[in-house]
Amino acid sequence: MSDAIDALESRYGGGPLTVQIRQDVKRGGELMATYEMEYPCLRNAMLAIAGDLREGRVETIQFAGRPISAEDLHALAKWTDGST
């Protein structure tokens, strides 16, 4: 995974990033809320959000406000569940 992380950081510029995660449960029939977490780098984020990626709750990952592609997000999710 180190190579994949390096490739993503190279493609998107690396550095601090923001991850938007959907809440696990609905409240009162309303749409699920999301929250944002900031991380200094993708390696730290992957340690923290692996479970959220596996469960499909990660909405976006952004480097300096620039979201990664859906394909890259899907590849990260597959890596966390051992599908690669």
Strand fraction equals 15-25%
Approximate shape: globular
Overall average residue pLDDT? 84
**Which regions contain 5 or more consecutive residues with pLDDT less than 50?**
none
Radius of gyration: 13 Å
How are strands sequenced across the largest beta sheet?
Answer: 2-1-3-4
**Total of helices:** 3
Q: Roughly what percent helix? A: 40-55%
How many E strands? 4
Query: Quick one: biggest sheet?
Result: 4 strands, antiparallel
Class by alpha and beta content: alpha+beta
Describe this structure in words.
The chain has helices at residues 2-12, 42-54, 70-80, and strands at 17-22, 34-39, 58-63, 66-67. By secondary structure, it is of the alpha+beta class. It has a 4-stranded antiparallel β-sheet with strand order 2-1-3-4, covered by helices on one side. α2 packs across α3. The termini are close together. The model has no long low-confidence stretch (mean pLDDT 84).
For this entry, give a set of tags:
84 residues, alpha+beta, 3 helices, globular
The gist of it:
With 84 residues, the protein is α+β, with helices and mostly antiparallel strands.
Secondary structure layout plus pairing:
Elements: H1 2-12, E1 17-22, E2 34-39, H2 42-54, E3 58-63, E4 66-67, H3 70-80
Antiparallel strand pairs: 1-2, 1-3, 3-4
Helix pairs in contact: 2-3
